[in-house]
Amino acid sequence: MPQISVDRLRPGIFVSLSSLGWIGHPFLLNRFCLSSMQQIQALREMGITQVEWDPARSTAEPLPERTPGASTPQDEDFGAAALAGMQDEKRVRLERVRQQRDGLARRERLFEQQAVAAGDIFRSLLARPQDAQRQASALVGGLVENLLGSDSMVIHLVNQKSREGGLAFHALNVMALSLMLGKSLGLSEEEMRHLGLGALLHDVGKQDIPPRILRSAKRTAPEEEFYRAHVGYGIKAISGMRELPVPVRNVIACHHEYFDGSGFPNRLSGEKIPRLARIAAIANRYDNLCNPFDLREAKAPAEALRHIFRTESARYDNQMIQLFIKTLGVYPPGTFVALSNGGVGMVVETNPTDLLHPLVMLHDPDIPRSEALLIDLRDADLKVEAALSPAKLPVETVEYLAPRGRLDYFVEGSEG
User: What is the 3-state secondary structure (H, E, C) of the chain?
Assistant: First the structure.
């Protein structure tokens, strides 16, 4: 980028301080559009005489060059106060970032605890079915109470420790995404509990399917038949849960039935498919697209939503599909995005009141990944310009923002 004298700066000029390093200046971002004279005065106080600027991203023209020998008004020097103000503001912003990072860490711990609990539930199904049912009901109940006791909800991306997802992580994702859609549909508390429990247990039958068949992208006809039997194995696995409500069993039995009648095992169609199963089917498909066994085949969240809407919409309840997309937002958690300052980030949280301005983790090689900046786009003069495909980004950028490759979700109630 070309350089410009600090004396020619005015609000609206887009500057880059990347050469200083993030800790070498008092601003929150390395690249930003100047918004006040205070920022320019802070640059002068730092002893900076020239900065890089981007004419294409600027909304104002630089001031004319000063004529040599021309006198300048002797105004009171407010530079020191401006710099101190910038430093104070940065400290406040960094404290907010720290709190947000602590919040993400707390949710990641909760997700890991839930994954351990889900694993225990699946392992104890046959030997101790009643204990498994109590544990599963407690796990679902806590989440449902949290969601129903709030005005809205926030969908968070969590970074679980294991690279291998496994049954527990998929089950938690489908449960969270199903309950998200269920809340948007206005389900009752009882329906939400049934939905959550069915979504958590929807794939328990896969424990009886050989991993080779589960992971195969191209199954033979006999292998596909064996794979589809996981629905029946799931019903068999929960047979010891004698008090499990019928709507819960129906989620397990019908989560692969399609609205157009092309699903399995019973080729049900339309509203013959139980409503809760129709919800779980959408959540299940979305997570399978984002987190396939072969992560090289994974679709970005926005891409997965487009795929379902454009090529598979006949399989699902249209009203539910539209609401699912609306609830996840234009930029669902896990979406890589190009920002208006030329930077790249990844959405880690939705903002339920403003889906166009989510919480974004910024890629900045000057900052360790463990201390990566989290920017609420409502608080910064930034906007998302486009969703990006991770396949088209440098490997180091993808590994910085999503080091484990998987996308896992935690849904939480919000008071708006």
Answer: CCEEEHHHCCCCCEEECHHHCHHHCCCCCCEEECCCHHHHHHHHHCCCCEEEECHHHCCCCCCCCCCCCCCCCCCCCCHHHHHHHHHHHHHHHHHHHHHHHHHHHHHHHHHHHHHHHHHHHHHHCCCCHHHHHHHHHHHHHHHHHHHHCCCEEEEEEECCCCCCCHHHHHHHHHHHHHHHHHHHCCCCHHHHHHHHHHHHHCCHHHHHCCHHHHHCCCCCHHHHHHHHCHHHHHHHHCCCCCCCCHHHHHHHHHCCCCCCCCCCCCCCCHHHCCHHHHHHHHHHHHHHHHCCCCHHHCCCHHHHHHHHHHHCHHHCCHHHHHHHHHHHCCCCCCCEEEECCCCEEEEEECCCCCCCCCEEEECCCCCCHHHCCEEECCCCCCCEEEEECHHHCCHHHHHHHCCCCCCEEEEEEECC
Summarised one tens digit per residue, pLDDT across range 279-338 is: 999 999 999 999 998 878 889 999 999 999 999 999 999 999 999 999 998 899 999 999
- Cβ neighbours of residue 136 under 8 Å, at least 6 residues apart? 121, 197, 200, 201
- Please check whether residue 395 is in contact with residue 387, taking contact to mean a CB–CB distance below 8 angstroms: no
In a domain, 395, yes or no: no
What pLDDT, on the 0 to 100 scale, is given for residue 286? 97
Taking 80 as the threshold, does the pLDDT of residue 403 lie above it? no
- The per-residue pLDDT for 189 is 97
Residues 163 and 33 in one domain: no
What pLDDT was estimated at residue 86? 64
| pLDDT tens digit sequence for 125-175 | 989 999 999 999 999 999 999 999 888 899 999 987 665 557 899 999 999
Q: Are residues 58 and 203 in the same domain?
A: no
Q: Which residue has the higher pLDDT, 280 or 39?
A: 280
- Residue-number span of the structural domain to which 231 is assigned: 115-328
55 within domain boundaries = yes
